[in-house]
Amino acid sequence: MNQVIEFIKSDRLKEKPDLESLGFGKHFTDHMFILDYNKVQGWHSPRIVPFEPLVLSPSAMVFHYGQAIFEGLKAYKTNDGRTLLFRPDKNIERLNRSCERMCIPPIDPDLVLEAIVRLVEVERDWIPNKEGTSLYIRPFIIATEPYLGVRPASEYKFMIILSPVGAYYSGRQLVPVKIYVEDEYVRAVPGGVGHVKTSGNYAASLYAQKKAEELGYDQVLWLDGKENKYVEEVGSMNIFFKINGEVYTPKLNGSILSGITRDSVIQLVKDWGVPVHEERISIEDIFNAYKNGELEEVFGTGTAAVISPVGELKWNEHKMLLNNSETGEFSKKLYETITNIQYGKAEDKFGWTKEV
Amino acid sequence: MNQVIEFIKSDRLKEKPDLESLGFGKHFTDHMFILDYNKVQGWHSPRIVPFEPLVLSPSAMVFHYGQAIFEGLKAYKTNDGRTLLFRPDKNIERLNRSCERMCIPPIDPDLVLEAIVRLVEVERDWIPNKEGTSLYIRPFIIATEPYLGVRPASEYKFMIILSPVGAYYSGRQLVPVKIYVEDEYVRAVPGGVGHVKTSGNYAASLYAQKKAEELGYDQVLWLDGKENKYVEEVGSMNIFFKINGEVYTPKLNGSILSGITRDSVIQLVKDWGVPVHEERISIEDIFNAYKNGELEEVFGTGTAAVISPVGELKWNEHKMLLNNSETGEFSKKLYETITNIQYGKAEDKFGWTKEV
Ligand SMILES: Cc1ncc(COP(=O)(O)O)c(C=O)c1O
Ligand SMILES: Cc1ncc(COP(=O)(O)O)c(C=O)c1O
């Protein structure tokens, strides 16, 4: 492709937010990346421009038929002032897998990587450097063609916006979360779109999430849509169980997202010599392991929180209290190992980081 | 509620499109309706304003998490110059059911009806009066809050846009369509959101639709997501089978849309004294009825095409040719009865139309 990225600098830079109250996804930087698609020119006109509102027809197809996908990754500031990305190639691969499933034309991976790198370079000063903070990178694609009718759009925008962020779960890191096992509402099913990052999956999850919160839980653990028996994933995390010294996680079955943190955890754990099983896991088996005292730790994995220890798992009338609702050693070690790589404090033996 | 709808008249009226080449969902009228929501004011500031682009933050939640719903109904011009809506109360009820499932605050049904009526009145001249044409009405709601994080938004826009339309399937009415029975990809599953009109359902359907088109078919017939055995619905139509003089349609099982045309057809057919069965229907049973020569007619029902006769149904290696691929008498009678009511040519004994 080899398209040159145009750069239009903003002449009104915003004030940076207070590092203590960053939150997640509330503040946006001064610039954004845009790439347009139409049938004649393909993906064209890559540019970094001031962060500003989008102007779209009320008939833009994204509003009506939800043809939209996204990604999420982070840039980290190291103690010696370098900027690192974590496995951006994996996000770009997944972006194009989401494109394929949602009938959106794929984008040259090299251009996407260059766009991320250039935009992060431009916004270097926005990367917060307090412990646990980072610059969240949100690439996304929306169908912009003004047309009412169900078919793939012929016009799209690919954009990247950046948000300096603190911890995902209201300022807490590695604090155990309470999880509600949802056995009525369903997120995804094989043959559907649960394995890609399309916007509708998240809208579909809101109702059960709200119900869980009303019952005093932080997140939902989804079960499979066919039998309501097998463990799938949590809101925006994959799920892991440590049982009797070995690690279990649901296999990629076509209805759960292929998390990049999940993949990293699997590689690390194997590297430590601990057996990892990717398989179909019934919630019943988890409960039995719990009853037998073999369920040592449960944790979620995702870009936002990295590792999120689970302190309580509620399934029907059963309440499983894990590790005295404290953060387990294994979760902690994983969190520290991964974040040390992300922040350039530990050797990156897998070659996961990319310096900007 | 009793909110007054403000009206700002456009000072640049567009030229009306040629009636011969209306198509579907390509042209939009001069005005649109907008209603805003925030937590403090609730739904507020109803207004009819010039049709113009929306200005939204790139972080508006609809782009990322797909919290969006819509409706579709039509206004018809009668021969004596009156304007009729068809069962708008049903669309408004369904709109609020979609809101509920998608965690969007509900809207006062009276205000929605008033908005539709007022907007159609303002755009009266846009209602085409050629046979088979109408003014398509598209109410929709999108999450506009600028925030990255999965939770229900705290800001929304409810809008109504209007499009003068011809026939949905490229200019043809009552021409039999060819339908591909999809047994790999899945649209919806009980516990999911298939029974409401949320944008993500349509994005999720594109891939199978594209596959069907590549194989020479017009539309997909979805099977259930649990067993891939039971008939659900077509792209944007419910499906009916006439077998041995009786009518069968899948029951509302939580994963198919409760079509307003479906409901009208059921009422009409019952009124004619023909038995109607709403039940779980396996594709195998349909094929057996076909083999036995008992499958008399198959047709889809929906606002866009009203009645869409099916000329061919393809299931795996089986090709079912229906009624010699011609429009059946029953489909035709239904089409004529319903459109005659819609266009004010026949007595409206069910009280379905509402004059604007
Ligand atoms: C549904 C879902 N599952 C899992 C994940 C975790 O994926 P990753 O580790 O790539 O952030 C995410 C977040 O991206 C997600 O949205
Ligand atoms: C998925 C789906 N099924 C069925 C229908 C038919 O519904 P109605 O008759 O209300 O137009 C539609 C169209 O609205 C639809 O989108």
Characterization of this structure:
Chains A, B: Keywords: Amino-acid biosynthesis, Aminotransferase, Branched-chain amino acid biosynthesis, Pyridoxal phosphate, Transferase. By secondary structure, chain A is an alpha+beta fold. Chain A folds into two domains: 6-165, D-amino Acid Aminotransferase, Chain A, domain 1 (2-Layer Sandwich); 177-342, D-amino Acid Aminotransferase, Chain A, domain 2 (Alpha-Beta Barrel). Chain A is 23% helix and 31% strand. Chain A contains eight helices and 19 strands. Chain A has helices spanning 61-65, 88-101, 109-122, 199-203, 206-214, 260-271, 283-291, 329-342; strands at residues 6-7, 31-38, 42-50, 54-56, 68-70, 73-77, 83-86, 134-143, 155-165, 177-182, 219-223, 231-234, 238-243, 246-250, 276-279, 295-302, 306-315, 318-321, 353-355. In chain A, the strands form two sheets. In chain A, strands 1, 2, 3, 5, 6, 7, 8, 9 and 19 form a nine-stranded mixed β-sheet that branches. Chain A is globular and about 60 Å long. The mean pLDDT of chain A is 95. At the A-B interface, strand 4, helix 1, strand 8, strand 9 and helix 4 of A face strand 4, helix 1, strand 8, strand 9 and helix 4 of B. The complex binds pyridoxal-5'-phosphate (2 copies).
